[in-house]
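Query structure, 55 tokens:
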């Protein structure tokens, strides 16, 4: 999921994502290892798919 988010935003590293979201880099690492709650993941997928269809 993190990879898909970074791709959609044109970001290459977790550090860049953390800076953009204003969270500690360890948070992005935690998301990458453990994922998101199912409802959050569903929402993110919906938003990413919609953004992709707008291109």
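Result returned for the query:
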């Amino acid at each position: 999921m993190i990879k898909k988010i970074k791709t959609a935003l044109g970001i290459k590293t977790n550090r860049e994502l953390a800076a953009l979201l204003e969270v500690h880099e360890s948070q992005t690492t935690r998301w990458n290892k453990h994922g998101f709650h199912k409802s959050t993941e569903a929402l993110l997928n919906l938003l990413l798919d919609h953004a992709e269809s707008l291109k």
